[in-house]
Amino acid sequence: MDDNCKVISVINMKGGVGKTTLTKELGYFMSDKKEKKILFIDLNPQSNLTQSFFLNFGLRHSEDLNDQANDTQITEASIQNLFDASVIKDLSLDKVIQSFKTRSGGSFDLIPGTLSTIFLERSSNASNMEKSIYNFIDTHELRKVYDYIFIDCPPTYSVYTVAALLPSDFYLVPVEPGIYSVLGIQMLEKVVSAIKEPNAVFFKEKPLKNLGVVFTRYKDESSYLVDMIIETKKLKEMDIYFFNEHFLNSKKLIDRPDYFISDHDDARLSDSLENIFTEIEERINGL
Predict the structure, then answer these.
(1) Strand partners, 9
(2) How many CB atoms lie within 10 A of CB 226?
(3) Contact at 8 Å (CB) between 153 and 44?
(4) Are residues 41 and 112 in contact, defined by beta-carbon separation less than 8 angstroms?
(5) pLDDT averaged over the chain?
(6) With a threshold of 0.85, does the pTM exceed it?
(7) For residue 120, what pLDDT band results from cuts at 50, 70 and 90?
């Protein structure tokens, strides 16, 4: 195993917390500004991460009906091909991984999601899906290729959650400040334990660790709720780490999926990403 590569699942059992936005902005920033080799894996059946990149770079899958413009290129790369493969070692990388160039000359890769994956969990192949990401990374030695692999996870306990966590070294928890956030954090820890216990062999050499909670869509008026969550007795007993830096609220990040912070002169949001990146690396080194 190459210790230089870190596989991080970005996960929360609650939807609508800015998880996908944080994933794409953080990874894009790291590839564009920090020259890190990044692979995104879109494991969310809604495929919002993929659609954001496709919209920005003018790509689509052949079955996509919402964009038939002549200036969009068709890519066959998808996670569906990975899940459908009977033999991982015979699966060519271009059937799974799509490469991109950032505006300033950086590069990153994506395993695109497809909306059709929402039906895969009910297929007879569902049990094999759990190990498919782990096997794909291992067989193609992707830990020797990338510095970071980010896995965007669905907000449910499903076969996709297991498939994400088995290859992961860490998981990062985006949380929007709110009164129900404490329950979401507690539920996630139970899910992680439920996955780790019967799959202990996968975590023998790389114990799965919680990088911490990053508060997302943060506003000045969020400080009271943040303090309340941090001071919750049960979370203190669980020894949850809370990031000092917050991912700031921004209307344009919500309204414009093709907007990338690193492509614009926005010191407020860029500083937020810079500080989160620094804290993640410090946290990893500390663990």
Answers:
(1) 151, 171
(2) 17
(3) yes
(4) no
(5) 91
(6) yes
(7) low
Which pLDDT belongs to residue 115?
75
Strand 148-152 relative to strand 107-111, pairing: unpaired
State whether the Cα torsion 146-43-106-29 is positive or negative.
negative
Indicate if the pLDDT at residue 167 is higher than 50.
Answer: yes
Task: Dump pLDDT digits (tens) for 128-160.
Answer: 889 999 999 999 999 999 999 999 999 989 999
Q: Please, are residues 195 and 165 in contact by the beta-carbon 8 Å criterion? A: yes
Please identify which residue in the block is written with the tokens 């810079």.
Answer: 274
d(CA 285, CA 283): 5
CA angle 205, 82, 52 (to 5 degrees): 100
Q: Report helix, strand or coil for 138.
A: helix
Could you tell me the maximum CA-CA distance found in the chain, to the nearest angstrom? 56
Domains of the chain from N-terminus onward: 6-286 (3.40.50.300)
